[in-house]
Amino acid sequence: MTPDTHLQRLFAAIETLDLDTAVSFFSPSARLYFCNSLIASGRPAIRRVLLPLFTCVDGIRHQTIALWSQGGVSVVEADVEYSSVHGGLAAMPVTSVLHWSRERIEECRVNTWRGMFPRIHAA
Predict the structure, then answer these.
(1) Phi, psi (5° rounding) for residue 88?
(2) pTM of this prediction?
(3) CATH number for 88
(4) pLDDT band with cut points at 50, 70 and 90 for residue 83
(5) Cα(103)–Cα(89) distance, rounded to whole angstroms?
(6) Checking DSSP bridges between strand 26-34 and strand 104-111, what pairing results, if any?
(7) β-strand partners of 98
(8) Which pLDDT band holds residue 112 (cuts at 50, 70, 90)?
(9) How many Å apart are CA 68 and CA 85, to the nearest integer?
(10) Residues 105, 34, 95, 42, Cα dihedral to 10°
């Protein structure tokens, strides 16, 4: 399977708020960075740090603007829309850089407006 196929499946898991499936795309030793800060290292820590996001939103939608993959690296630019459980709606650009090894994410760097996600912090 190609990284592009894995990304489509990862985004599908995120959009259905299936945290366990989304986390399964990460290697056991993966690192997750948010706005240039390491926020989680290892699959259990990644799950812990993503749990608040998955519980405060009612939906997440990705519209891919650009996707580039080569040599185990994928770069994705997307417009992402978040609807909150309280009825709010926010949309913003998100750029992610993913490093793959053996069809699993070893490192994921998510870059967007940090003010939108005050509940995301290191596990």
Answers:
(1) -75, 160
(2) 0.86
(3) 3.10.450.50
(4) confident
(5) 33
(6) parallel
(7) 74, 108
(8) confident
(9) 33
(10) 0
| pLDDT in the model for residue 87 | 82
Phi-psi region of 57 (alpha: psi -120 to 50; beta: other; left: phi over 0): beta
Residue 60: which of 39, 47, 36, 79 has the closest Cα? Answer: 79
Task: Classify residue 123: in a domain, yes or no.
Answer: no
CA distance linking residue 43 with residue 87, whole number of Å: 30
Q: What is the mean pLDDT of the chain?
A: 88
List the alpha helices (DSSP H) in 1-123: 3-15, 19-24, 43-56
Q: Read off the pLDDT of residues 14-41 as tens digits, 9 standing for 90 and up.
A: 999 999 999 999 999 999 999 888 999 9
Read off φ and ψ for residue 87, nearest 5 degrees: 95, -5
Q: Is residue 118 part of a domain?
A: no
Residue 13 lies in a domain: yes
120 within some domain = no
Domain tally for the chain?
1
Q: Which range of residues forms the domain containing residue 17?
A: 3-112
